[in-house]
Design goal:
This protein is an alpha+beta fold. It has helices at about 10-20, 25-35, 75-90, 100-105, 105-115, and strands spanning about 45-50, 50-60, 65-70, 95-100. The protein has a four-stranded mixed β-sheet with strand order 1-2-3-4, sandwiched between helices.
Length: about 120
């Protein structure tokens, strides 16, 4: 029997709340990712894999995108982020992390970094 990992039911309300209350950086990046605008790839907002929720996920490319604010500089949050990355990488998902400020001030740099990873599984 195959174990379900994507969008577990118990996280549904939490994912919906996150989608309905995005950070400024999430809203900004979503403007460029939605409707297959970046490389023709579909991105999902607040997609969960296991117990972890990714800010954005591209299933075709197996790329997760995390936008980090001030809290991510705290030791306990860094440890959690590391655990999350290791879990996702074990399932073949590449996690890209960007500071909120970079997304807001220079989205082109973020978009270039994301699109440069397209096809990473074949590299």
């Amino acid at each position: 029997m195959k174990c379900r990992l994507n969008n577990l039911r118990y996280l549904k309300t939490f994912r919906k709340d996150l989608r309905n209350n995005p950070t400024k950086a999430e809203s900004r990046l979503w403007m460029f990712l939605k409707n297959r605008q970046l490389g023709g790839n579909k991105f999902r907002r607040q997609h969960s894999i296991g117990d972890y929720i990714l800010d954005f996920y591209c299933p075709e490319e197996k790329i997760g995108i995390e936008l980090d604010g001030e809290i991510h500089h705290l030791i306990h949050q860094k440890e959690y982020d590391n655990e999350k990355n290791l879990f996702l990488e074990a399932y073949g998902i590449k996690v890209l992390r960007f500071e909120n400020e970079l997304v807001l001030e220079n989205p082109e740099t973020v978009l270039n970094a994301i699109s440069s990873e397209f096809g990473w599984t074949k590299k």
